[in-house]
Amino acid sequence: MKKIGLLSDTHGYLDDAVFRYFEPCDEIWHAGDFGSIGIVDHLAAFKPFRGVWGNIDGQDIRQACLEHERFMCENVDVWMTHIGGYPGRYAVQVRPEITLNPPKLFICGHSHILKVQYDPKLNLLHLNPGAAGKQGWHKVRTLMRFHITEDRIENLEVIELGNR
Fold first, then answer.
1. How many CA atoms lie within 13 A of 77 on its CB side?
2. Which of the listed residues 22, 28, 80, 92 has the most CB atoms within 10 Å of its CB?
């Protein structure tokens, strides 16, 4: 079993509460728009880390992170990208691959909209952790925690960090 902490869209702001909430996690995943290479460094120094760059991220972050991360966690095929769209309306850059070879877990950020949605057509779980930073139109800053056990995604929690 792996305990995962998931966040996105920090836009240069990393609340100290993230470290308290992610203390029990085995890994931290960030779905892009870090806003500062310091956030990448701080998270990577804290726990094993995976991240993808977002549309606001500069060359320093684009050199440290990939645009798309596709990997196995336990027995779950995971695809994480920043701009991914939603079931039935996937982004143009992911649509061909996700249709031909869907993962079990698809994670994206970008919209600042917290979303957990099952796609029955592709048999995948779509997660967007919302936004953990203070920039954007979202009202509440959010994170997610969940477990991956063998081939199951379990114990999903949404954590509210407070108002933007």
1. 8
2. 80
